[in-house]
Amino acid sequence: MTSSTRSTFAPVSDPYQHTENFRRAFNSGDAAAVEAGLEDGAVFVRGPGDPVTGGEASRAIADFLALGLPMDIRDRHVYVADDIALIVADWVVEGTGPGGDHMRMEGTSTDVIRRGADGLWRSVIDNPHGTTRPAA
């Protein structure tokens, strides 16, 4: 992520606001806004057992946003230990997809965020699939 990307959407200084900040970024449809909440080198899990970084993560995020559907997400747990936090959140993406069919995806994410030297919290691991097992 570049500094210009980060300037389009600001990370938060309160880890308990990270999920709401992510929801707003996701619902903006702007991949740069979503990526502003990620650390450089962050892992994005595009499917159970399929972690990606860098350009692959950017493409996976853009593909998810291309559905054009809103996300509702609510924290279930936020555990903070110094400069690291674990967030467990329940999410739903639902609406009419690009092909005109009704779509509904839901899950429970497990995300690790870290407070940077600037005092702002960013995702180190963004795992929307939580404990979902990879397909056999």
Question: What does this 3D model show about the protein?
Answer:
- By secondary structure, the chain is an alpha+beta fold.
- Helix content is 24%, strand content 43%.
- The protein has 4 helices and 6 strands; from the N terminus they run H-H-H-E-E-H-E-E-E-E.
- A 6-stranded mixed beta sheet has the order 2-1-6-5-4-3, with helices on one face.
- The radius of gyration is 14 Å and the shape is globular.
- The termini are far apart.
Low-confidence stretches: 1-7
Q: How many strand units?
A: 6
What portion of residues belong to β-strands? 35-45%
Give the overall shape, derived from the CA principal axes: globular
The value of Rg in angstroms is 14 Å
How does the helix and strand content classify structurally? alpha+beta
Approximate helicity band: 10-25%
Largest sheet: 6 strands, mixed
Determine the number of helices (DSSP H or I, runs of at least 4 residues): 4
Indicate the mean pLDDT: 91
- Measured between the Cα atoms of the first and last residue, the distance is 33 Å
SSE string: HHHEEHEEEE
Strand order of the largest sheet: 2-1-6-5-4-3
